[in-house]
Design a protein that fits this description.
312 residues, mainly alpha
Length: 312
Protein backbone atom coordinates (compact mmCIF):
# COMPACT_ATOMS: atom_id res chain seq x y z
CA UNK A 1 0.00 0.00 0.00
CA UNK A 2 1.38 3.44 -1.00
CA UNK A 3 1.99 6.15 1.60
CA UNK A 4 -0.82 8.24 0.08
CA UNK A 5 -3.27 5.33 0.25
CA UNK A 6 -2.29 4.70 3.85
CA UNK A 7 -2.90 8.36 4.73
CA UNK A 8 -6.32 8.29 3.04
CA UNK A 9 -7.26 5.15 4.95
CA UNK A 10 -6.05 6.65 8.22
CA UNK A 11 -7.92 9.91 7.53
CA UNK A 12 -11.18 8.05 6.87
CA UNK A 13 -10.76 6.05 10.07
CA UNK A 14 -10.42 9.33 12.00
CA UNK A 15 -13.94 10.41 10.98
CA UNK A 16 -17.07 9.54 12.94
CA UNK A 17 -19.35 8.58 10.06
CA UNK A 18 -20.24 9.93 6.62
CA UNK A 19 -23.85 10.08 7.86
CA UNK A 20 -23.07 12.59 10.58
CA UNK A 21 -20.17 14.61 9.18
CA UNK A 22 -21.01 18.14 8.03
CA UNK A 23 -19.91 19.21 4.54
CA UNK A 24 -17.94 22.24 5.74
CA UNK A 25 -16.17 20.09 8.33
CA UNK A 26 -15.15 17.59 5.65
CA UNK A 27 -13.87 20.38 3.43
CA UNK A 28 -12.14 22.49 6.08
CA UNK A 29 -11.94 21.35 9.71
CA UNK A 30 -11.42 17.60 9.34
CA UNK A 31 -8.35 17.86 7.04
CA UNK A 32 -6.81 20.50 9.33
CA UNK A 33 -7.74 18.44 12.37
CA UNK A 34 -6.12 15.38 10.82
CA UNK A 35 -2.88 17.36 10.34
CA UNK A 36 -2.93 18.43 14.02
CA UNK A 37 -3.77 14.86 15.09
CA UNK A 38 -0.86 13.38 13.10
CA UNK A 39 1.51 15.99 14.54
CA UNK A 40 0.23 15.34 18.07
CA UNK A 41 0.64 11.57 17.65
CA UNK A 42 4.23 12.08 16.53
CA UNK A 43 4.96 14.37 19.50
CA UNK A 44 3.16 12.16 22.01
CA UNK A 45 0.48 14.77 22.79
CA UNK A 46 -2.77 13.32 24.18
CA UNK A 47 -6.30 14.15 22.98
CA UNK A 48 -7.09 15.77 26.35
CA UNK A 49 -4.07 18.08 26.02
CA UNK A 50 -5.35 19.23 22.61
CA UNK A 51 -8.78 19.84 24.15
CA UNK A 52 -7.26 22.01 26.88
CA UNK A 53 -5.36 23.98 24.22
CA UNK A 54 -8.65 24.54 22.37
CA UNK A 55 -10.18 25.92 25.58
CA UNK A 56 -7.35 28.46 25.90
CA UNK A 57 -7.81 29.54 22.27
CA UNK A 58 -11.58 29.84 22.74
CA UNK A 59 -11.10 32.06 25.79
CA UNK A 60 -8.79 34.24 23.71
CA UNK A 61 -11.44 34.49 21.00
CA UNK A 62 -14.03 35.60 23.52
CA UNK A 63 -11.69 38.30 24.85
CA UNK A 64 -11.07 39.60 21.31
CA UNK A 65 -14.81 39.92 20.63
CA UNK A 66 -15.15 42.37 23.52
CA UNK A 67 -13.41 45.13 21.58
CA UNK A 68 -15.35 47.28 19.12
CA UNK A 69 -12.50 47.04 16.62
CA UNK A 70 -12.85 45.09 13.39
CA UNK A 71 -9.21 43.99 13.29
CA UNK A 72 -9.19 42.67 16.84
CA UNK A 73 -12.52 40.95 16.10
CA UNK A 74 -10.93 39.30 13.06
CA UNK A 75 -8.18 37.98 15.33
CA UNK A 76 -10.94 36.59 17.54
CA UNK A 77 -12.53 34.86 14.55
CA UNK A 78 -9.20 33.25 13.63
CA UNK A 79 -8.67 32.11 17.23
CA UNK A 80 -12.15 30.58 17.35
CA UNK A 81 -11.58 28.71 14.08
CA UNK A 82 -8.21 27.54 15.39
CA UNK A 83 -9.89 26.33 18.57
CA UNK A 84 -12.43 24.37 16.53
CA UNK A 85 -9.68 22.78 14.44
CA UNK A 86 -8.19 21.53 17.74
CA UNK A 87 -11.67 20.38 18.81
CA UNK A 88 -11.77 18.32 15.63
CA UNK A 89 -8.22 17.07 16.15
CA UNK A 90 -8.78 15.71 19.68
CA UNK A 91 -11.54 13.37 18.50
CA UNK A 92 -9.64 12.34 15.39
CA UNK A 93 -6.54 11.59 17.45
CA UNK A 94 -8.63 9.57 19.94
CA UNK A 95 -10.10 7.48 17.11
CA UNK A 96 -6.71 7.02 15.41
CA UNK A 97 -4.93 5.94 18.60
CA UNK A 98 -7.90 4.38 20.44
CA UNK A 99 -7.40 6.74 23.40
CA UNK A 100 -11.08 6.85 24.35
CA UNK A 101 -12.19 7.93 27.81
CA UNK A 102 -15.35 9.26 29.42
CA UNK A 103 -13.29 12.11 30.91
CA UNK A 104 -12.12 13.00 27.43
CA UNK A 105 -15.69 13.07 26.14
CA UNK A 106 -16.81 15.26 29.05
CA UNK A 107 -13.85 17.60 28.59
CA UNK A 108 -14.54 17.83 24.87
CA UNK A 109 -18.14 18.86 25.51
CA UNK A 110 -17.09 21.27 28.24
CA UNK A 111 -14.64 23.04 25.92
CA UNK A 112 -17.40 24.39 23.68
CA UNK A 113 -19.37 25.55 26.72
CA UNK A 114 -16.36 27.50 27.97
CA UNK A 115 -15.81 29.11 24.55
CA UNK A 116 -19.37 30.34 24.33
CA UNK A 117 -19.50 31.43 27.98
CA UNK A 118 -16.55 33.72 27.26
CA UNK A 119 -18.14 34.92 24.01
CA UNK A 120 -21.46 35.62 25.75
CA UNK A 121 -19.65 37.53 28.50
CA UNK A 122 -17.71 39.58 25.94
CA UNK A 123 -20.88 40.44 24.01
CA UNK A 124 -22.69 41.58 27.17
CA UNK A 125 -19.81 43.73 28.35
CA UNK A 126 -19.34 45.18 24.88
CA UNK A 127 -23.01 46.05 24.36
CA UNK A 128 -23.11 47.76 27.76
CA UNK A 129 -20.45 50.25 26.64
CA UNK A 130 -21.23 50.64 22.91
CA UNK A 131 -25.03 50.44 22.55
CA UNK A 132 -27.16 53.39 23.67
CA UNK A 133 -30.11 51.08 24.38
CA UNK A 134 -28.15 48.57 26.46
CA UNK A 135 -26.27 51.33 28.23
CA UNK A 136 -29.65 52.69 29.39
CA UNK A 137 -31.08 49.22 30.13
CA UNK A 138 -28.03 47.15 31.03
CA UNK A 139 -30.07 44.35 32.62
CA UNK A 140 -31.68 43.47 29.27
CA UNK A 141 -28.53 42.11 27.63
CA UNK A 142 -27.71 39.99 30.71
CA UNK A 143 -31.19 38.46 30.80
CA UNK A 144 -31.05 37.88 27.05
CA UNK A 145 -27.67 36.18 27.38
CA UNK A 146 -28.81 34.01 30.30
CA UNK A 147 -31.95 32.76 28.53
CA UNK A 148 -29.99 32.17 25.33
CA UNK A 149 -27.35 30.24 27.27
CA UNK A 150 -29.95 27.86 28.69
CA UNK A 151 -31.33 27.10 25.24
CA UNK A 152 -27.82 26.87 23.77
CA UNK A 153 -27.02 24.10 26.27
CA UNK A 154 -30.21 22.20 25.39
CA UNK A 155 -29.63 22.57 21.65
CA UNK A 156 -26.06 21.30 21.87
CA UNK A 157 -26.99 18.42 24.20
CA UNK A 158 -29.83 17.18 22.00
CA UNK A 159 -27.84 17.50 18.77
CA UNK A 160 -25.08 15.38 20.28
CA UNK A 161 -27.57 12.84 21.66
CA UNK A 162 -29.29 12.30 18.32
CA UNK A 163 -25.95 11.91 16.56
CA UNK A 164 -24.81 9.30 19.08
CA UNK A 165 -28.10 7.40 18.75
CA UNK A 166 -27.74 7.42 14.97
CA UNK A 167 -24.15 6.18 15.25
CA UNK A 168 -25.41 3.39 17.50
CA UNK A 169 -27.41 2.04 14.56
CA UNK A 170 -24.63 2.69 12.05
CA UNK A 171 -21.64 1.32 13.96
CA UNK A 172 -23.09 -0.45 16.97
CA UNK A 173 -22.33 0.18 20.62
CA UNK A 174 -18.55 0.36 20.09
CA UNK A 175 -18.91 3.10 17.47
CA UNK A 176 -21.16 5.29 19.58
CA UNK A 177 -20.72 7.22 22.82
CA UNK A 178 -24.33 6.65 23.84
CA UNK A 179 -24.68 6.36 27.62
CA UNK A 180 -27.44 5.30 30.03
CA UNK A 181 -28.11 7.44 33.09
CA UNK A 182 -28.86 4.37 35.21
CA UNK A 183 -25.41 2.91 34.43
CA UNK A 184 -23.74 6.25 35.13
CA UNK A 185 -25.52 6.56 38.49
CA UNK A 186 -24.23 3.09 39.42
CA UNK A 187 -20.70 4.23 38.57
CA UNK A 188 -21.27 7.44 40.54
CA UNK A 189 -22.44 5.65 43.70
CA UNK A 190 -19.50 3.23 43.48
CA UNK A 191 -17.05 6.14 43.84
CA UNK A 192 -16.02 7.72 47.14
CA UNK A 193 -16.14 11.47 47.74
CA UNK A 194 -13.03 11.10 49.90
CA UNK A 195 -10.89 9.03 47.51
CA UNK A 196 -12.36 10.03 44.12
CA UNK A 197 -13.60 13.59 44.71
CA UNK A 198 -12.89 15.11 41.29
CA UNK A 199 -13.86 12.02 39.32
CA UNK A 200 -17.12 11.77 41.24
CA UNK A 201 -17.86 15.49 40.84
CA UNK A 202 -17.34 15.36 37.07
CA UNK A 203 -19.42 12.20 36.81
CA UNK A 204 -22.24 13.84 38.79
CA UNK A 205 -22.52 16.69 36.27
CA UNK A 206 -22.20 14.34 33.31
CA UNK A 207 -24.86 11.99 34.68
CA UNK A 208 -27.29 14.86 35.21
CA UNK A 209 -26.53 15.99 31.65
CA UNK A 210 -27.47 12.50 30.41
CA UNK A 211 -30.62 12.48 32.59
CA UNK A 212 -31.73 15.69 30.86
CA UNK A 213 -31.22 14.12 27.44
CA UNK A 214 -33.26 11.08 28.41
CA UNK A 215 -36.12 13.11 29.91
CA UNK A 216 -36.53 15.06 26.66
CA UNK A 217 -36.74 11.87 24.55
CA UNK A 218 -39.47 9.61 26.01
CA UNK A 219 -40.12 7.73 22.75
CA UNK A 220 -36.41 7.10 22.26
CA UNK A 221 -36.14 5.68 25.77
CA UNK A 222 -39.12 3.38 25.17
CA UNK A 223 -37.45 2.19 21.96
CA UNK A 224 -34.19 1.53 23.79
CA UNK A 225 -36.07 -0.47 26.43
CA UNK A 226 -37.94 -2.43 23.75
CA UNK A 227 -34.70 -3.21 21.91
CA UNK A 228 -33.12 -4.44 25.15
CA UNK A 229 -36.18 -6.62 25.81
CA UNK A 230 -36.15 -8.13 22.31
CA UNK A 231 -32.42 -8.57 21.74
CA UNK A 232 -30.84 -8.36 25.20
CA UNK A 233 -27.10 -7.78 24.90
CA UNK A 234 -27.07 -9.25 21.39
CA UNK A 235 -26.73 -7.28 18.16
CA UNK A 236 -29.72 -5.55 16.59
CA UNK A 237 -30.60 -7.20 13.24
CA UNK A 238 -29.10 -5.49 10.21
CA UNK A 239 -32.46 -4.92 8.51
CA UNK A 240 -33.82 -3.11 11.58
CA UNK A 241 -30.69 -0.99 11.84
CA UNK A 242 -30.86 -0.03 8.18
CA UNK A 243 -34.55 0.88 8.37
CA UNK A 244 -33.96 3.13 11.35
CA UNK A 245 -30.83 4.62 9.79
CA UNK A 246 -32.74 5.55 6.64
CA UNK A 247 -35.30 7.53 8.64
CA UNK A 248 -32.79 9.09 11.03
CA UNK A 249 -30.17 10.14 8.48
CA UNK A 250 -32.13 13.13 7.05
CA UNK A 251 -32.26 14.61 10.56
CA UNK A 252 -28.47 14.65 10.87
CA UNK A 253 -28.32 17.89 8.88
CA UNK A 254 -30.39 19.53 11.63
CA UNK A 255 -28.05 18.25 14.34
CA UNK A 256 -25.23 19.86 12.35
CA UNK A 257 -27.11 23.17 12.17
CA UNK A 258 -27.28 23.09 15.98
CA UNK A 259 -23.56 22.40 16.20
CA UNK A 260 -20.62 24.74 15.74
CA UNK A 261 -20.42 25.92 12.13
CA UNK A 262 -23.85 27.53 11.73
CA UNK A 263 -23.45 29.25 15.10
CA UNK A 264 -20.02 30.44 14.06
CA UNK A 265 -21.26 31.90 10.76
CA UNK A 266 -24.08 33.72 12.58
CA UNK A 267 -21.68 34.99 15.25
CA UNK A 268 -19.23 36.32 12.66
CA UNK A 269 -22.05 37.98 10.73
CA UNK A 270 -23.40 39.69 13.87
CA UNK A 271 -19.97 40.94 14.98
CA UNK A 272 -18.01 41.49 11.76
CA UNK A 273 -20.72 42.48 9.26
CA UNK A 274 -23.69 43.97 11.13
CA UNK A 275 -21.58 45.21 14.07
CA UNK A 276 -24.47 44.34 16.41
CA UNK A 277 -23.31 41.38 18.54
CA UNK A 278 -26.71 41.03 20.28
CA UNK A 279 -28.14 39.74 16.98
CA UNK A 280 -26.35 36.47 17.67
CA UNK A 281 -28.52 35.92 20.75
CA UNK A 282 -31.64 36.57 18.67
CA UNK A 283 -30.45 34.01 16.09
CA UNK A 284 -29.96 31.32 18.73
CA UNK A 285 -33.28 32.03 20.44
CA UNK A 286 -35.42 32.16 17.31
CA UNK A 287 -33.84 30.23 14.44
CA UNK A 288 -32.03 27.50 16.34
CA UNK A 289 -34.93 26.85 18.71
CA UNK A 290 -37.25 26.34 15.74
CA UNK A 291 -34.75 23.80 14.36
CA UNK A 292 -34.50 22.14 17.78
CA UNK A 293 -38.26 21.69 18.21
CA UNK A 294 -38.68 20.39 14.67
CA UNK A 295 -35.83 17.91 15.10
CA UNK A 296 -37.12 16.62 18.44
CA UNK A 297 -40.69 16.12 17.18
CA UNK A 298 -39.49 14.32 14.06
CA UNK A 299 -37.10 12.07 15.96
CA UNK A 300 -39.68 11.09 18.56
CA UNK A 301 -42.05 10.08 15.75
CA UNK A 302 -39.33 7.97 14.16
CA UNK A 303 -38.66 6.21 17.47
CA UNK A 304 -42.38 5.57 17.96
CA UNK A 305 -42.58 4.08 14.47
CA UNK A 306 -39.57 1.85 15.16
CA UNK A 307 -41.30 0.48 18.27
CA UNK A 308 -44.18 -0.62 16.03
CA UNK A 309 -41.75 -2.60 13.86
CA UNK A 310 -40.85 -4.70 16.90
CA UNK A 311 -44.53 -5.60 17.41
CA UNK A 312 -44.99 -6.81 13.85
Amino acid sequence: MSRWSELKREYKSSLKSSDTEETFDLIFYRPIGFFWAKLAAKLGVTPNAITIASIILGIGAGAAFYFNNIWINLVGAVLLMWADSFDSADGQLARMTHQYSRIGRILDGLSGDIWFFCIYLAICLRENVTSDFFMAHSWVIWVLASVTGVFHAIQAAMADYYRQFHLYFVKGEDGSELERASYLWDKFHALSWRRDFWQKLVLMFYTNYTVGQEKRTPSMQRLRAALAEHYGNGPIPVDFRERFRALSKPLMKYTNILSFNTRCFALFAAILIFRMPWLYFAFELVVLNVVLVYMMVRHERICHKAQQWLRQ
